[in-house]
Amino acid sequence: MPCSDLPSAPLLSFSEGQERFRSMTSSYFRGAHGCLLLFNVTNEETFNSIINWFNDLHVYAPPENICCIIVGVSTNAARSRVVTAERAFRLAESLGLTYCETQVKDEQMVLWILTRVVNSVIVSRARRQSLAITIMPNLQQHLQDKEKKRWKCCSS
Asked: Signal sequence span per UniProt (predicted)?
């Protein structure tokens, strides 16, 4: 997967939306930096589960620390669509997320979605790191000044 100069490869974990994995969600989500919430556009139940997975995700991975995309997946073009793109877009918007669609066999789109999440994680982490670099020197200077003032009253 072509992603900016990564120091390490992304680790992908899949629960396949199966309820039997719900007890393991804490280990899947804890420390996650990116997430794809997928549902089958021909299955209403998978769409309705998105909110539960989203809520579980934010119990273990704070929203400000994670890049997340909702993905509608079409597994079989012959089956009739149950969840409209409009409904999915509205849900994504209400959760503050991006929405896109793909077919399982569309390797280009799947790769684009994965690349987008990984690059969003990289940009987000770089932004936080540069913010820390900006704040830390000022904080260190503030602490040094405070320490000097504290001892100033005792000198004379």
From this structure: none
> Which residues face 98 on adjacent strands?
69
- d(CA 14, CA 110) in angstroms, rounded, equals 14
DSSP assignment of 71-110, as one string? Answer: EEEES-TTSPP-S-HHHHHHHHHHTT-EEEEEETT-HHHH
Whether 61 and 29 have beta carbons less than 8 Å apart is answered as: yes
Tokens in use for 106?
């569309």
- Residue 104: name the closest of 54, 152, 39 by CA: 39
Q: What are phi and psi of 62, to 5 degrees?
A: -55, 140
Q: What is the pLDDT of residues 123-140, one digit of tens each?
A: 776 665 554 555 555 556
37 DSSP β-pair partners: 70
pTM of the model: 0.67
Residue 41 near residue 82 (C-beta atoms within 8 A): yes
Q: How many residues does the chain have?
A: 156
At residue 108's C-alpha, the angle toward residues 105 and 113, to 5°, is: 100
